[in-house]
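[Meeting: bench + compute handoff]

Bench side (C.D.) handed over the final construct sequence. Compute side (W.E.) agreed to return the predicted structure before the next meeting so the bench team could plan truncations. Sequence as handed over:
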Amino acid sequence: MRTVELRHGQVLHHAGHSITEVYFPLDCMISITVTVSAGRTAEAGAVGSREMVGINAFMGGRETNHTEYVAQIAGSAIIMPAGPLLEEFDTVKPVRDVLLRYTQAYIAHLSQNVACNRLHQIDQRLARWLMECRDRLRSDDLAITHEFLAEMLGVRRAGVSETAGRLQDRGLIRIGRKRVRILDSKGLEAASCECYRLLRDEYDRLLGPMRPGGPGTTS
């Protein structure tokens, strides 16, 4: 295992290729995208601290998938070859147990995203997504653009700008150039839908509570 610095926009894995390396983000965020036959790309999710990308590496089969991994927020991550991880998964029960618990949490996250995108208002969804970014990055200062938020939420950029403006008017966030700062995390959590709390509790149940000490601590 070694620590690497990922730059914004760096592609870590191309769709259809074998997964040869896995990543454990430390203070960066990696976007998981899906491209359909028409060439359009949609964000399936984002991965930060307490998560990993490359779970297909220990799920068997050809160890490939149809998704692409892109570093959306620059920062550091731990990288390791997929082969040794698969060996540990096959032979060491504690390693297998924690990886399967994370897989369960990851599936819960994707499932909740589907329900959230269909049932909840954009104000709630944006508040939820900003809180999840805060937890993943352990920072109130988020280097994200309105374009990226629009892709994550599946809406037009103008809709994100209007919604972010309303949250700013309420004193919950401050919008800057390619940056959002969370001013009132408790208020922003109250403004989010129940999906944020449900998933936070599920991650804590499966993986243990986040360690104290960072501004993104959820416990």
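W.E. noted at the follow-up: The radius of gyration is 17 Å. C.D. will use this when planning the next construct.
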